Amino acid sequence: MGWKPAPRWDKYNHRYHVTVRGKRYILGRDYAKALRRLAELLDGQDRTNSINVMIGDWLKNHSSNWHDNLAKKFHLFLTAEKIESVASDLLERYAAHLRNAGLKPQTQRHYVNAATSILILAKRHGRIAHVPFKPKLPPIRRRPKDLDEASLRKLLTALQRPGLERASRLIRFILATGCRPGEGRLLRWEEVRLEQRVCLLDRHKNEHHGQNRTIYLSDHAVAILHEASKGSDRKGHVFFSSRGQPYQPVVKDHFPTRDCMRGCGVRRRVW
Asked: Does domain 149-263 have CATH number 1.10.443.10?
């Protein structure tokens, strides 16, 4: 497999160019766009199974700066290593290259997955005979989400401050019952059975799977619900913001833990 022609950088005019069959073409200043233009240029000619064509085909279906960076990393690796054919250990060598560069495990996964996607598309188009086997990647070690005892004490103290009554009720209810944050946010009075001391939920974590959930209420959880029912007609959501709407998911900045934790100096999320 030949990897030429490849875009070359003109340091005087600050742009990429390529020479195909003795004719010079200007490809622009962006590396990934230069690859796409080169692939389009080769459409009308005798297309070889080059790296430019493979990556250009892939970028046609993945047009974003994020995918451009993923493809450029793989392209630079292939050209720097002067790889002339797709061997069965190509992805393994690429993963070792990323690992030696000191990239984080999650970043390594992004680059290897993109390279695998490029090669799968190349095989689908008949440009390569087989897709190299995907190597075993290092596991992603996530930071623990649990708060230490001192931070949890700060958070519980902050929940007693004036002005945080609404947010305090929701967070204390989640801590008292062990329910999921989304279940606490979207809890409705129709699902609450104070006499039986349970909450019956027909919503699932996954949209089409799962079973109905039963949340058992402790004495503290029952007291929180009685507190939330004061001045309420017990219709709609149990916990809501000052705007009268249920709190947004944790990915939003409106979730009540943000202000509480920032106010007490805790920087790590509870969930």
From this structure: yes
